[in-house]
Amino acid sequence: MTTALALLESSFKIPQHLQLLSIRNYAISNNINISFYGNERVGYENRHDLFIEYIEKSREEAYLFFTIEQFIFNDIFYTELLIEATNKGLLLFFANENLKITNRMDIINTKILLLSKTSRAYRKISKINY
Amino acid sequence: MEITKYINEFTAQGYSIVPIENINIVNESRNFISNYISKKYKVTGSSEYILNHCHELIDQITDSKVNQFILEIINEFSKYYKMDQIIYSSCATFLERILGPDIASQKHPNIVFQYPNSERISELHSDAPANSFYEIVSWLPLVNCYSSKSFYILDKNKSFSLLSSYRNNQFNSFKELRAQAIKEATHLEVDYGHALFFWSGLLHGSVINKTNESRWSYNVRYKNLFAPAGLKEPLSFYNIFSKSAITELASELI
Ligand SMILES: [Fe+2]
Question: Which domain holds residue A11?
């Protein structure tokens, strides 16, 4: 059984209790034991201060995030930290996307799949016309 | 080249029934399912017979019993088979011509079991939206499907025209729209050994299966890897199925 630190998405666009449900559900179906829950300081999510400190001190073998969106800002997918973490052999899980990242290829494939993510403008158009 | 005929048909109508070019893997996976059922219920017979008459084996059949039963089968099946691979390899020429070499496939494919008189039918709908308009739905029956054992579909022009009337409030209710759709629809006849491919924008649905045989089918959705994902979250909905050489090269620059 893997033990992971759960890191919630701290803008809380998705309410905390729903994030927790999704995280616990993912943990159960993937045999993950959650060591503790945390989140980045509200308003400073993209700095990942907590995550960086944990990586540096090698405090956990795995991290369970609520969503990959925690690494996307202004439509840019920031992969540096994910690369650093996987280079250290850490396992990264994302509950909302039912996703596991353990190596460079997983990061590449995640990036490719994210390219097809449809913009909000498209959502509006498709709803009106169909 | 014969495949061009099916591609042209798909473009014109939004769907096409394509003969499978490699039946072996489909046969093997179908036998796997029927063997599982034979062992579970201690019965013998051909795969076709067992699948067609499977509903007779389940004591006092209910939708929730069937749900449980299908989940069991999907669980066992996915230990040995990848449904997206089965369907793709059975109609590879057709699918590659339509989608190109960069392909995303649905992460959680379905096995559908529709037993006689079950009221759990698929209501009139189009998969897109919420699914991507760049998706192709594959539907591969494991038994011959005809009349109410099959399902109905409205080609591109009929789907467009019905949806536009519905948008302009020319129907008083969804019920009226559905009645008109069922009247105008093509009630498909698809024999085992063929696969139906249809565009995600087409209206389709099923009616109560009034035959005395069960319908079994695989269904998987594919789209070009780089095509818009619609309202679906690409990471949870799709797998990367295949990548072109140029995508492999560009992938090195993450
Ligand atoms: Fe559908």
Answer: 2-126
